Amino acid sequence: MKSAPVSFPSAGGYQLSGRLELPPGRKPHSFALFAHCFTCSKDLRAAREIARALTTAGFGVLRFDFTGLGSSEGDFSASGFSGDIRDLMAASAFLESQHAAPALLVGHSLGGTACLAAAFELPAVRAVATIGSPASPGHVAHLFSGSLETIQSEGSAEVQIGGRPFRIRREFLEDLKQHPLENRLDALRKPLLFLHAPQDTVVGIKNAELLYRAARHPKSFISLDGADHLLGKKEDARYAGSVIASWATRYLDVPGSGGLETDRQVVASLEKDAGFTTEMRVGNHRMLADEPEDFGGEDLGPSPYQLVAAGLSACTVMTLQMYARRKEWDLQRVEVHTSHDKEHAADCNACENEGARIDTFRREIRLFGNLEEAQVQKLLEIADKCPVHRTLHGPIQILTRLLP
Fold this sequence. Notes:
Low-confidence stretches: none
CATH architecture of the largest domain: 3-Layer(aba) Sandwich
Number of domains: 2
Helix content: 25-40%
CATH topology of the largest domain: Rossmann fold
Radius of gyration: 27 Å
Strand content: 15-25%
Mean pLDDT: 86
Distance between the termini: 26 Å
Shape: elongated
Strand order of the largest sheet: 1-2-4-3-5-6-9-10
């Protein structure tokens, strides 16, 4: 994805720090606004991975730091939950001035609760997704329960949240109480998606139940089973982002094919700053190709050789099932496991040097069904006759020309 730092003024006159991310090789079909969790920042790994998943699906994404957090100016303790809502509205106005108003709000923890509240004030927003969000803003007060008495009596206290010191004022607590959400969520009338981990020990799963019960349809719930509150594992954050992207497209005006067009069977496009992450259109299907992380890629899609191996595997299972159906054999299921490597060509008589290597595809076939031994052997013979297998074994020519 293309990523650039941005800044814009808050309602209080402070400069808020953000990062605008765009999908590589095409214009975004919609824009999303991401709100981070309480006392976190836009640079939390979960925020980055969710934004990456959304841009992969064609969204433009703005993630930013709330007032007084991360790289944004201002006083966190003086801003409060009301300030978070105003910051979201300022971010929306910035997006609209530069590109388009956000159609999707995504919020993590208290950021999700703020998104639900802000959605009432942002008519362009078509859908809202929350991740591990409390049903009430006041839920965060338990994070500094040991200092509540001091805050009330002395007006403020320094508390430790996530190993970092924050000064919490009495006004901050009072502001949290001014935004009851459950009682008015049914009036939002926008599609809502609640994602929550049953094992979340910071914001319990009961909050997702309360939000879901309070909301009107269309509403959806996704369990992030096994994830922690901060989505510390990259795969959990990527899963959440991909689910949100898939869900949201049902409610947004998303074109089917996007900007990558071709009159050929396949087109691949890679921008200068995209590393190895390659956007592809294969027939009517969009996908990504990439390289593994240990090769310098982001592992957001299969590698080129994996794509070739995938073609061999897919063609093999199709050929075997087609043959078995024609013969009326009981082949219930077939699996083909394929890997590619370059191995020393010890038996290659045509190789000019002893160190030469030959491309090797190792294909392992598993057959399920009530099959006789003769049928099994025939199917193994037919596997070598699948079209992709024959193409890889036959003479191949690649004709290249430069397009204007």
